[in-house]
Amino acid sequence: MNTDELYKKYVENIINLGATNERVRTALKRAVKAYRSNVANALNRFPETAEKAKKGREIKEYSIEHMDELVDKACASIEENHGHCYKAKDKEDAYEIFDKLVGENKLVVKAKSLTSEEIELRQYLEKRNNEVFETDLGEFIVQLLDSRPMHLLAPAINIPREEVAELLKKYTGEEVEPDIGKEVQKVREILREKFCNANIGISGANAISADTGTIFIIENEGNARLSIGLPPVQISLIGMEKVVPTLEDAFLVSEVTWRYANYKIPAYVNLISGPSKTGDIEKTTTYGAHGPKELYVIFLDNGRREMANDSIMKEALYCMKCGACLYECPVYHVTAGYYGYKYIGGIGTIWDAYTTAGMDKIAPLAYTCTLCSRCKVRCPFKIDTPKMIMELRRRLVKMGNVPPPLKEFYKEVTGKDFTI
Length: 420
Ligand code: SF4
Description:
20 helices, binds iron/sulfur cluster, six-stranded parallel beta sheet, 2 domains, 12 strands, globular, alpha/beta, four-stranded mixed beta sheet, Rossmann fold
């Protein structure tokens, strides 16, 4: 697609699928209201969070400055813990590693992971004849819909219960009432057997500590712990930017993440440092007890090193994907997840530029941002996304990649004159 066609497709998507879709707008309005009040309550109850967020930013600044060194250290810790470590420079490299570890015709259960979305891992594994189940409820709904996540943390934020009931009915062949409690029970029934029979469990990470090689996974549903706890093999695909120096640092970053991610206190925080083991017979450590017998960790670069070496764009790597900024973004309010390729919103634009879409396809997103800076105010790490967007535009202009007149496209798509 050339740049003009790309803009047209993008404008069509955000207008037809997002901005003029009443269902999406209603769902988002409710979600934003709930998010603001939940986070305000959480910050009132835990006022020390603001101070911890400041410290969290310092940890991330240090970690990105020393990213390669910390990944090496984390790898050494994981190997020491009887896990195995790989480094993937891009998506193809990661696929090759997954080919080796997963192969074909396997049953795979997968916890939610933006890094796996980034490289379309489920779709790749399915092409290799594996049966893959997303086990996060929202991701499972998105999988049934054959759609894409509409928020960094709440993938099915735009799907009302009535539509979920129809989807589940189609999948199971049974009548399902549009009652959220009953829908949750139905998905529990469907996935329970998959957890028990899966050959492989796949996850991402919210953070990982270099000194102990401990993977942190925050969740509420309990699906991540079943995905990584029941199958005999666990594979974690982790972006290089997730490594921080110590266990305490990983805890602090995770705590700030869950506070701003609308969790107050999550039901579970999983900490995994190696395959399962026991020393109960003669104090002899034996690997492969009740949990996974094997643990593999794959660190993904896929543009992260390039960002880390860029004095302005490296700030995007501090992002812990809490999704808080999206609730304040006026563009996200009307476009939902259509404001992005794999990542979403202003910060997602920077991520997409480096990890998924590339500079050739990023212009429509770069020019969607209003530069209002509300994201920066909400962000716990005060990440200056508008500054990075401005820099992105400056670079795009230099490349001659500028938007065609928006008004013409708007009229072409809607038949109406563009007004603000
Ligand atoms: S930019 Fe800040 S608020 Fe937005 S997802 Fe990242 S850390 Fe959270």
